[in-house]
Amino acid sequence: MSALKGRKAVITGGGTGIGLAVAKRLTADGATTVLMGRNLERLQEAARDIDGAIAVQCDVTDPAMVAQAFDTAREGGKIDILVNNAGIASGRPFHKLDYDEFRRIQNVNVDGVFHCTKAVVKDLMGGDYGRVINIASVAGLRGGPYISHYCASKHAVVGMTKALAVEWGQTKVTVNAVCPAYVETAMAENAIKTIMSNTGRSREEAVAELADMNPQRRLIQVEEVAETVAWLCHPNSFTVNGQAISLDGGAP
Ligand code: NAP
User: Fold this and answer.
1) Which of 45, 141, 187, 189 to mutate to test the pocket of ligand 1 (most atoms within 8 A of CB)?
2) pLDDT at site 217
3) Percent of the chain whose predicted confidence (pLDDT) is above 70
4) What is the rounded average pLDDT of the residues 73-99?
5) Is the CB of 140 under 6 A from ligand 1?
6) Residues 88, 206: one domain?
7) What pLDDT sits at residue 25?
8) Looking at residue 101, which CATH number applies to its domain?
9) Do 186 and 118 share a structural domain?
């Protein structure tokens, strides 16, 4: 397939989990990908396995580093697609949540999306095609216990998504959010370990607790998230704009 031939996609957090699966999937559709993250060695290792991919070190919380990384990314041609995927999570009851931890999550999940999206404005405006896809979460659509800080960050991302879709309605750019329930990655693994240590439950019970939030009783696979991102990038998906697409097996 070559729907994205000639398109360049930047994927933050592209060296692991969902971001890596997205990079592979967009490459299969013909795009060249730029993988960004803090761990350069891991990014380079991931990029070696993906046709045409390059690895660029970038901490999305650092505006100067973001500006420099995106300059590197646009060498040889402008950026067409931004997948704001870099994100972090933690679980903490609100009464034990301190302001530093609250800010740590917002800095990556919200400020990071702000800095990276700002960095591609000049690539996307005035062109004939552009996509911004934010990997939010079902926590961007509803609440849950022990994740008020994470929920706040992902609701902010969904809000920014909807606002930019309206603001850029007269351009060829679409801005959408993808909102998965638990996906089988390092992030979900951390949640499993937290449940085990806080409750004394077995690994099997902890996995079941996460899986049971999905009516299909399972953890989502990274390839499923990547498939939705690829669909949003397809030129025929232009009409889909400002959406927050739930990938949660039909949770009410
Ligand atoms: P993951 O494997 O832990 O990926 C997170 C990625 O973000 C890593 O590649 C990490 O790379 C990068 N990252 C973290 N902080 C960064 C920073 N300051 N600057 C640049 N990159 C940074 O987990 P994942 O599940 O694939 O998560 C990807 C996204 O999906 C996140 O936004 C997450 O909130 C969202 N999500 C995950 C789930 C789930 O259950 N797994 C569900 C819904 C939504 P470096 O360490 O190299 O920086």
Assistant:
1) 187
2) 97
3) 100
4) 97
5) no
6) no
7) 98
8) 3.40.50.720
9) no
Number of domains in the chain: 2
Mean pLDDT of 111-119: 99
- Same-domain check for residues 237 and 134: yes
**Residue partners of 14: CB distance under 8 A and separation at least 6:** 20, 22, 23, 33, 34, 35, 36, 37, 43, 46, 83, 85
Q: Are residues 175 and 187 in the same domain?
A: no
Name residues whose C-beta falls within 8 Å of residue 2's C-beta, 6 or more positions apart in sequence: 29, 30
* Ligand 1 atom having least distance to the Cα of 184: 41
| CB-CB contact of 183 with 219 (8 Å) | yes
- Whether 99 is catalytic is no
Question: Which residue range is the domain that position 195 belongs to?
Answer: 181-219
Task: Return the H-helix or E-strand segment holding 132.
Answer: strand 130-135
Residue 183 CB less than 6 A away from ligand 1: yes
Per-residue pLDDT reduced to its tens digit, 140-182: 999 999 999 999 999 999 999 999 999 999 999 999 999 999 9
In a domain, 1, yes or no: no
Cβ of 161 less than 6 Å from ligand 1: no
pTM of the full predicted structure? 0.98
Q: Is 50 in the pocket of ligand 1 (CB under 6 A)?
A: no
Q: What is the pLDDT of residue 1?
A: 65
Look at residue 3 and tell me if it is in a domain: no
* 252 part of a folded domain: no
Identify the pLDDT of residue 238: 98
| Residue 219 exposure: Cα atoms within 13 Å on the Cβ side | 19
Q: Residues 196-203: what's their mean pLDDT?
A: 94
Query: Looking at the domain assignment, is residue 13 inside a domain?
Result: yes
Residues 122 and 198 in one domain: no
